[in-house]
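We close this part of the discussion by returning to an individual protein. Part of our work consisted of pairing the sequence of a single chain with a tokenised description of its backbone. No coordinates are needed to read the tokens, only the vocabulary itself. The amino acid sequence and the backbone structure tokens for this protein are reproduced below:
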Amino acid sequence: MINVMNIIDNKPKYTSGSELSTAQPLFVLIDYENVQTEDLSYLNQPHMHVLLFVGALQKKISTKLAVQMQALGSRAQYIQLEATGQNALDMCIVHHTGFILARMPTARFFIISKDKGYDPLIQFLNNRGVPIERSPQLPSSLPPQGERSAQQTTPHKHAIERIIEILKRHDKNRPASRATLISWTTNKISSEKLGLTAEKIIKDFEKKGVISYDGKRVIYSLP
């Protein structure tokens, strides 16, 4: 059986044009007790990994699924529970998500399950910048490399808009340097319970022209 650590240690690469670059790994975690999917053919890509979670009382899987899992080689793993219990398989999926995320912070996650009980966790992680979503069935295609779901975009947009709103109210007392702005933003993130880092917000401001610099002095061009 393939071990999850083997998947994590195998850093995937993919080719984009003539340039070789490191892909953002995507882990597809399938609740096979809840969704009996069979077609994994389009998941056979270097940066995609499949973890198939099987209940303790499930004794069979289809030959078609087994063949496709085998084709994925070291990027696929069966995980069968050893005991039954309420939400036992759900907790196992949550455990593996955290286990992988702690060791591979750039990973993306896609949970295949009809169980809406995952959604509070997904929202919690989305608000902290983790790309994770759930679908009641394996879709015909998964989000391309680097693409964020609508669930992730909304908290990000809210955090940016909230910081801009606060800056507008402090037009005569805004941070003068980048270092001061980061410190000020960090405090606001904490008090407002926003799910982004100050550095990420400042880089977004710089990219969109919300702030620029005259030497070390910050120039504001708030929308």
The chain has two domains: 4-148, 151-220.
